[in-house]
Amino acid sequence: MSEEILTTQDLHLYYGEKEALKGINLNFTDKGITALIGPSGCGKSTYLRTLNRMNDLIPNVTITGTIKFKGQDLYAPSADTVQIRKEIGMVFQQPNPFPFSIYDNVIYGLRIAGEKDKEKLDAVVEKSLRQAAVWDEVKDHLHESALALSGGQQQRVCIARVLAVSPEIILLDEPTSALDPVSSSQIEATLLNLRHDYTIIIVTHNLQQASRIADRTAFFMNGELIEVDQTKNIFMNPAQKQTEDYISGRFG
Ligand SMILES: Nc1ncnc2c1ncn2[C@@H]1O[C@H](COP(=O)(O)OP(=O)(O)OP(=O)(O)O)[C@@H](O)[C@H]1O
């Protein structure tokens, strides 16, 4: 399917007086991976956070423009942020499991929603952990603390926690930058499997990672979207000089 699931039109974001996003127009079709790259401070994380209203939690933020998820204005007064964050889940740079068991981490969202059917919860735990490619490693320890896992395992449990509430879009903010190379490649493999079923948007500093996993890559600089294209075009034949300079390591 190639219909647009998420659209951003003329998006500006201000932290107080400072304009961090300067009129972003960027759309996402259903399924696949889009990487957001660019030098430090260019607004990648800020942009990612606007997509499930995480910036609402920061004081003094002003947002103008339009973001639509399946045609509905994400910032409409009637929009339900709890529902939005279920449909558009987020995985952070530092794995952030709750200080509960692996099982309770994965079912956290369902339990909050009032689900009590143990058979259903068991099934969701297994399915989500399998999708996150960590089931085999944790299946005999489901009722032990998630904090006892390695960083890479914790991050895959966090991905399972997002998957358990059946999102359509998964946002990831540098999900491997705190992990060792083996754990990072396990996360990359997990995302490559998930790309068939979910729309994935990942902020990464790691250009090789973007080139390995992303179908599409968007290059940001100074709060602007400079260019977005198929990943191979961005890396092999960018349209903009700024993109070429960044990709070839001339700055950033
Ligand atoms: N909570 C905040 N309050 C004020 N300014 C902020 C806040 N968060 C980010 N900024 C500023 O907004 C700009 C964009 O930051 P952002 O973190 O989105 O960039 P980034 O491209 O993700 O950077 P990095 O790659 O270093 O994480 C920066 O100038 C940053 O200092």
UniProtKB/TrEMBL annotation:
Against Pfam families, the record matches this protein to: ABC_tran (PF00005)
> What biological processes does GO assign it?
phosphate ion transmembrane transport
Pull one GO CC term from this UniProt entry.
Answer: membrane
* UniProt xrefs under InterPro entries: AAA+_ATPase, ABC_transporter-like_ATP-bd, ABC_transporter-like_CS, P-loop_NTPase, PstB-like
Which keywords belong to this entry? ATP-binding, Nucleotide-binding, Phosphate transport, Transport
Under the heading SUPFAM superfamilies, the entry gives: P-loop containing nucleoside triphosphate hydrolases (SSF52540)
* NCBIfam families with a match to the protein in the record: 3a0107s01c2 (TIGR00972)
Protein known as: Phosphate transporter ATP-binding protein
